[in-house]
Amino acid sequence: MKKITKILISLFASTMISLSAFAGELTVTGTAKATYNTVSGTANGDNTLGVVNEFTIGAAGELENGWTWTYALNMDPEDTAAGGATLNDDSALTLSTNFGTVAVYGSNGGLNVSGSFNANAYAWITDTGFGEGKVEPNNISDYMNMQYHTPAGLLPLGIQAKIAYAPSGSTNVKSGNASNTAASATIGNMTMYQVSLAPIDGLSVSASYGTLDAGNGVTNNEQNDESGAVAIKYATGPVTIGVSRSLDAPAIAHAAAVPATTVEYIENTNYSIGFAVNENLSVSYSNESSERNFVTASTVGFDQDTQSFQAAYTMGGMTIALARTDYDNVGYANNKDVSETMLAVTMAF
Q1: What are the tens digits of pLDDT across the range 10-58?
Q2: Among 50, 114, 316, 318, fewest CB within 10 Å belongs to which?
Q3: Per the structure, how many domains does the chain have?
């Protein structure tokens, strides 16, 4: 681990020191979205309207030796009744060289591939606003992190490898002049790896693995926190099919007697099928199943399942989408079922 850290720090120190000497181009991109949502089967069920105006401020430039750099910062409105202040998050500074790409990310740069199965017409539905309670593997994007990516096209079969390291479990976004950012007392450093390949046209295969160390206040875990995922997606003609499978083993503290209701690992199986009716209209179906496994085999658990039918129609920069989703055993609670219908109109700019 110390060798990995030293390599990453050396790369940053040797390549990023002179970025400020070169002017770059400033851009603003994003989406404006309005949604109408109905939910039944929950105490919070109602008809709701939403307007999302998240956008990204970006900059890019090229150095004298041909290397390129990019910077991006997302602007998100806070979710409050009064409208809230605009928040700065999901920042990224990257430098692409002949030897690969180095980057520093804040709440960004996720390498977990469990969502790479997504062939939905509208969205990966368990990654939207409704809290169905599905547990996904840890992702490096939850923390301040630095990464190295091998150059695209360097290895055969389109193989690309990525490695990321988060030093302290910190989620605080600090300025470049800040020091001694508060570390988490319960979460230590995280290391994550991703490998992807595209052996034939239309086929992509990817895998990810991450380990999350305990914080300063936690020692001698019965089980350390680790997770991994694999995903395959294939597109041919108007049809796209995606499948993923992931395992997440949360940390279990050392104790004389571990409670029988303690989760040992969570197993997720997802698949998605998309069909492009024509160049404007697409439809899809997806199924996601999440199973909790306990340290005691006799402990009864209930799978969290999600099924979603979606359709999207695009006209230039506007997309109109409709998603009908059924959530079974929300939060892994037996017979807690919810149905959701969402209509979204999105303008890209």
Answers
A1: 555 554 444 444 556 788 888 888 999 888 876 555 678 888 777 888 9
A2: 316
A3: 1
